[in-house]
Automatic annotation (TrEMBL), chain A:
Residues 560-569 have a biased composition (Acidic residues). SUPFAM superfamilies: WD40 repeat-like (SSF50978). It comes from Aspergillus heteromorphus CBS 117.55. This is Pre-rRNA-processing protein IPI3. Residues 494-526 form a coiled coil. Gene3D superfamilies: YVTN repeat-like/Quinoprotein amine dehydrogenase.
TrEMBL record, chain B:
The keyword Nucleus applies. SUPFAM superfamilies: ARM repeat (SSF48371). This is Pre-rRNA-processing protein RIX1. One of its GO terms (cellular component) is nucleus. Belongs to the RIX1/PELP1 family. Transmembrane segments: none annotated. It is found in: Nucleus. It comes from Aspergillus heteromorphus CBS 117.55. Keywords: Nucleus. Residues 464-485, 613-642, 719-781 are annotated as: Disordered.
Amino acid sequence: MLSECFIASTLASGKVPASASLRDVGVCVHEFQPTLNLRSTFKKSSTAARCLAVSPSHVFAAQAEKAIVHVYSREKGNQEAIVPFPERIRSIAVAGGKNGDVLVLGTEGGRLILWETCTGRQVATTASHLRPVTALVVDPTSNFILSGSSDASIHVWSLVDLLSFTKAPSGRDRQPPNSPIRTFSNHRAGITSIAVGHSAGRYNIAVSAAEDNTAIAWDYHTGRLLRTFLLPSNAISIALDPADRAFYVGYQDGSIQSIDFYKSQSIQHPLHDPSLQSTPSQPPAEDRWLPPTADCGAAHALTLSYDGMTLLSGHQNGKVLSWNVGRKKYASTVADYTHPITNIMMLPPTGLPHPTLDLQRVAHTIVKPRYDHTLSESSQSIGTVPADYTFSTHLLPSISSTSNQFTEAFSHAYFPESMIEEGLAELAALDQPGSNGVQASSMSQAVTDEEAAAKDSQIFDLEAQLVTLKQKASINETARQSTTDEVTKLRSDLANLHDYITELHEKQEQAQREKIIRQARKEERETRRRDAWFAAEKKGKKGDAVLRKMDAEDTLMTSDTDDQSSDEQ
Amino acid sequence: MAYMSMSLHAVNHRLTNVPVKQLPHLASCLAASLSNCGELLSTPQSQKSTKSDSDNAVQIHKLVTRLGSLLQDRTYEGRWTAVVLVKALVEAGQWEILRGCEPFVRGLISILAKSDPVSTKKMCIITLTRIFHLTYQYPTLVREITTPSLPGFITSALNLISVKPSSEPLRKLKPSTPFVEVVLQAFSELIARHPTIFRPFTAQIHSVLQTIIGSTAPTFPEPILEITQQLFISLHNCAPKNSGGEEWKNACRMTITSIHATSSSVFRAAVEQWESVDPSVRQISHPQNYGEEVGNGPDALGLGSWRGLDAGVNRLVVLLRMLSGFLGTATSSTVVMPVGAILDLTARLNMLTVPSSGSDIQANPQIGRAERENMLTELPRIHVACMKLLLHLVKTLETGVVSVAQTILEQALWVFRAEKFSREVRAGVYDLISALLARVGPSMTKQSVSSLTSTLRTCCHDLLPPAGNQNAPAERSDPKNKTKSNQITANADSFFNPGLKQTRQTSTSSSFPYLTRAASELLVAILTHAPTEFVSPALRAEIDRTIIMTSDKNAMLASVLNPFPAMQGRGVGTSIMPFLARSYPAETEVESLIRPRMPVLMNGSALNGYTAMDEDEEEEEDDESAPAPSTAPEASGFLKPMATPSLHQDMMDVEVSPPANKRSYAEDVEMKAPAPSTVDSLAGAQSKKLRFEAEQAAASTLGAASPAAFTGTAAISVPTSSIAGPAPVQTTTTATVTSKPTLAGGKKTSALPSAEAAEDESDEELPTLNMDPDTDDEDDE
C-alpha cells in the first residue's frame, strides 16, 4: 500500500511524555499518509540537531554530548550496536546513494570520519575545520561531502578521493591527502544548516544558512556564489523544494519562511543570472509563516513531503507541525513527542514503483568500524587493496532481463506458442507410420535408458527397414504378376480376334463361290432356254410356248434354289 | 461470468467428445479459453450459492476429473494435452485449483518416468515447477502438496539427466540428454524457496554440476553453463541453518583459489611480475613439470583435470564467469564478499598483457615459443572475462565501489593499452568505464580524465564511419597516443576508389552492434558524469564530431546538457544544439530543452505565490474587468487553473508588492515602505490609469482590440487597482480592497464568456512581453 512516513528524533529533556508509548523514546517513525499514527519507535537516544541519519536498513543517531553513535536496525526494530568514536560527533550524514553504505561523521574537533558500514573500514580526514562540524550533507551523486562548521566556512570534500585505496594521480600534491578540495567562505558566522539540490548533474546547487542572518545559494562544483538572501532572522534549518524551485527556512521563533528562486520570468535560470548574483535579495520579514502559538520554540528541523506540498517542522516544544506550502501557512499539528525535536526526515514513500531505487542488496547488520593501522598508514604500498578487504551484504534476487525458453514458459498463461508447436511437431512425428515414427519412438527409447538406447534404436531402425523392404518386394511381386496376367489375356484376345477374322474370311470366300455357282447355273439355264427356243423354232413349233413351259418349270426350281442361296448368304 | 461459464462448458464438451488423438491440435485454444476463465475458476466455492454457480462448480469438477484421467491416458497425445491444460488451469485458478491439484502433481511426476516425447516431459517439469512456485505463498498448500511431492520430483528430474550408479550419493551425468537445461532451471527456481527439501540431494546435484562445469574438451553451450553456475552458487541455500553465508564464502574462496591454480599453469610460459597482497596466496608455489603438456589435476573445486592450453583457457574463462556469478546471484543471507581477493586476482590476470612496442613480457626459457605464442593469443579472451567480472563487481557494489574504483580503472587501462586491437576487449573496457564513470565521474581529477583520452579517441574511432581518417593521425597531437600511430595502414584501393573504404567500414561497424552500443554509452557517460572542463578541447571537438556523425540522440543530449565551459577570452562556448534540433525536432527531450516550460511547472493552483508574473496578469485582468468586464476563462496566466477565492485571500500580502520583474526585493521594499514614495507611485499609476482608460475607450470604438492597444495595460499593477476603489493609502487596507475585485474577477471569469473574451484571449500574451519597459517607465515617473 502506498504510504509515506517521516522519522523524527528528539533531544532528551526533563519533561515526561504524556503518552506511555513515547516514554524513553528517542527516535520515532511516524506514518504521515494516509493516516497519522506512530509506526515504530527506537529507545534510549538523545540527539542534537543534524545528528540523525537514515539508510534503507539502519538508523544512525549520534548522541548529544557523547562520542558514540547508536545504530538501530530498521528491519528488526531494535538497537543493533553502540559504536564509540574518538571524538564527540556533532553532525552525521549517510552517503552511498540508495544503499547508504557510508556514514559520514563530523566531529567536535573539525574533522570528518568516514565509516563504510559494509566493510568496517574507517577513514579520517585532516582537521580542516577550526571549530566543530555543525552541518553535513552529501550530494545526490554521492561524490561530494559538504561540511559546514561554526568557523563560518564550508568545505567540499571528494568522497571518492577520501575512500579510494588508490589515490588518483592528483594535481593537488601541495595539499596533504584527505583534505577538502574546495572551501566556500562567503558566510560571516557559524554555519547552521546546509541543503543540497536534487540534481545529479554538474549544475547542482547548495543552500547554506549561517548565524549572520544570511542564506546563500551557491554552486558547490565551482564554489561560485549564486545568490545571497538577507533573512529577517537567524535561520536554523533549511529544506529545499524537490524540484529546487524554492527553499524553506525555519527560525528560532518557530516561524517558517519560503524563499522562491523564481520571482521573475527570464529566459535564464534566475540563480545563474550574473546580474542578480551580486545583489543580495531580502525577503521581507512579514512574509514569514507564523506558528499557531508563540511557545512552539525553534524550528530545529524541516522536511518536505514527497510531493513537495507539505512542509513538516520539528520544534523545541516537541511538536511536529505541518505547513501548507501552497497557502503559505500553518496547517496542523502532526505529532507531539514532548522532548525537543531536533531532526525530522521524510522517508521515501513505500508502494511507489521506483525502478532505479530498487535495492539490489541490503545490509542486515553493520560491520563495526575497526581502525586498521594498515589501512591508514601511508607507509603501506599505495594503491593496493588489502586482501582481507571484504564487503558484507545480502544480494537480493533481481528481475533478470535474460529471457530464455524456461522463464518465458514459466510466466506464460499456459505455454508459449513456440513450445506448443514443437510439441505438436513431435507428436505428429510419433503418429506417422514408417521411418519417422520409428525414429521418434527411438528418441523416447533413448530417453529411458542411455546405453542400450542407441543399439535398440538401431535395431528398431533396421527391423523397420526390413519390414518396409519386404512390403515393397511383395508389392512389386504382385504388380509384376498382374502385368503378366494382363499380357497373357491380351494375347489370347488377340488370338481370338485372329480366329474370328479367318472365319469371316472363309465365309466371304464361300459366299463368293456360291455366287459364282449361282451365276453359272443361271447362265446354264439361259443357254438351255435359248437352246430350247431355237430347237422349237427349228421344229417349227411355237418357241414361246416351249419357253413358257420351261419358265413354269424354272420358277419351281429357282424358287428352291433362291431360297437356298438366301439362306446361305 | 456468463461468457466464462459458457466457454468452460465448451471446453468440457470438446475434451470429452473429441477423440484423444485429435486433442493436441485443440490444446492451444482450449488452454487460451481456460486462461480467460480465470475469474470463474478462482472464485471460492463458498461464494457459489446460486444455481448457475453450482452449475459452474459441477463444470469445474468435471474438468478437473477429465484432466486427471487424461494425465493417465494411454496415448502420448492425451498426456501431452493434459499437461498443457493443467498448466493453464493452475495459472488461471490459483488457490482454488491449487488446493486440489495433488492428483495432478502425482500424475505429472509419473509422466517423467514414462517414455513420453521430450516436449511432454519438458512441459511437465515446467508445470510442476510452476505449481510448486505458486503454492509457496500458502503454507497449508506447501504442507499438503509441495513437501510430500517435491522429493519425488527432484529424484525423477535427476533420473532424467543422470544415473545413480550405486548407493553412493553421487550421480553420473547422462551424455547428451535434452533435459539438462530445463531441469537445472527448475532446480534453481525452487532451491532458494525449499532449501530443506533439497538438502538431502545436495551431494547428487553437486556432482552433476561439477561434471558440467569441469568439462573442458567439449564445453557445454553457454546457456547451460550459465544456469549450472547459477545453481552451483545457489547450493549454499541448502546449508544447515545460518551457515549459508559461510558456505557461500567457502565456495567463492575455492573458486578464486582454483582460478589462481589454473592461471599458474596457463601462464607458465611467461614469468609473471605480479605479487599477491595476500600472503597465503603468495606462499603457494607450483612445482611444474615443464617437460609435459600444460595441464592441471583436480583443483580446489573438485573439477576434473585438463590437458592442453586451450582446455586450460576454457577452464579459466568458465571459472571467471562463475566468479562473476557469485557477485550477481541472490544469496540466502548476508555474505562476505572478498573484494580484496577478487581485485588481487584480476590484478594478476590483467597484469600479463600481450606485448606491445612499449612493454615486453619476460619469457620463461623452459617453455617453447609455440606455447608462449599460443598463450598470448588467448590472453584477450581471458581479459574479456576479467572485464566482465569487474563490471559485475561494480554493478553489485554500486556506490560501495568508490573505494576500489580507481584500482579497477587502472586495471582496465592496462588491458586497454596493450590489447585494444581486440574488439571484445574494447567493448568490455568501454562497458566497465561507463559503469565506473556513473559512480565516481563527478569527482574525477584532471589527471584521471586525461588518462582516459586514448580510450575515448578509440571509442570515437569505433563509432565513426572513418571516411576522412586518412588525415586523422595528424590531428592526434596528443603525446600519450604513441601506440596509435601505426594503426592505420595505407590501403591502395582507397586511393583509387575513396568510396570503397567507407562502404566497407560502415558495414563493419554495423556488424558489431555490441561494440557500437558500448562505445556510444561510454560517450554519454563521459559527457554526463565527468567534469567537462577536464576534457581537452581537441578531444571534446572529436567527441562532438562523432556524436554529430552518428546522430545518437542520447549522446547529443548529453553533449548539449554538458557544454564545454566557456574559456576566458574564447568568446561564447559552442553547442551542438542546432544539430540536435535538426535531427530530433519532435522528441520530447529536445522540446523541453529548447523551449522550457519552467513557469508552467510552477503549477498555479497551489503555489500561487510562486510566479509574480501570473499575479500581475490577474490584476490587470481585474482592471480590465472594471471598465469592460471581459475576461476569458483561459486567459488567467499560463495554463493556470482557476484560483479559489480563499487562496487569493491568503496571498494578498504577496500581491500587494509591486511586480518584481527585474528588480530585487530590496528595491521593492524601498519603494513600498515609505509612504510618500508609495503615494508617488500611486499617483503615477493613476495618471497611467487615465491613459489606459482612454486607450481602452479607443479600443472599444475600434471594435477589435489590436495588440498595440493593450501594451499599456501591463503597467497597471496592483496599486492601480486599489486606487480604483476608495483609494486608501495604507497597504493593509489596500490588500482587503484588492481582494474584492479579485473575487469579482474570479467569478466573472467563469460567468462571462463573451465575444470580447475571444479577442482578449488572443491578445493575452502581449502585455507580458511588454512588461519590462513599462515598469521602467513607471520607475522613471
